[in-house]
Amino acid sequence: MGSxxxxxxxxxxxxxxxxxxxxxxxxxxxxxxxxxxxSMTIFMxxxxxxxxxxxxAAAATFVVVVAVPLALQYPFVRVNxxxxxxxxxxxxxxxxxxxxxxxxxxxxxxxxxxxxxxxxMCLPVLWGQEGGHEKATxxxxxxxxxxxxKPD
Length: 152
Known about the structure:
The protein has helices at residues 2-51, 54-77, 83-87, 103-115, 132-137; strands spanning 90-94, 139-143. By secondary structure, it is mainly alpha-helical. It has one domain (2-143). A two-stranded antiparallel sheet has the order 1-2.
């Protein structure tokens, strides 16, 4: 009886993991876009009035748009998560047994592999397969919070 239920339960578990991964990405993208919108509507006009130079205001706004999401994500990245992954109880682990996940690998995975490919590398995840961003960085997402301040 237990083995007859294993198939449907495994299928439901995989679907729930995919949904949690998608929602975690929505949260991570929302952090960036809220920073972008806030910077463009509040910070940039303020800087233009203060500096009197639109180019200087644009440069300062660019720095804020990049620095704020990185600063917000950094505490989570230290324990192999992003804000979205932490919210949904997920974390990133290495599939390479001789290499741990580091903040630079998470940056490569989340920025270069996902964002630079316009999320096209992530499409296989929708079918429960390893995404290109996971192959490129030798990582995968698992369900479970980091237990301590350091990755496992």
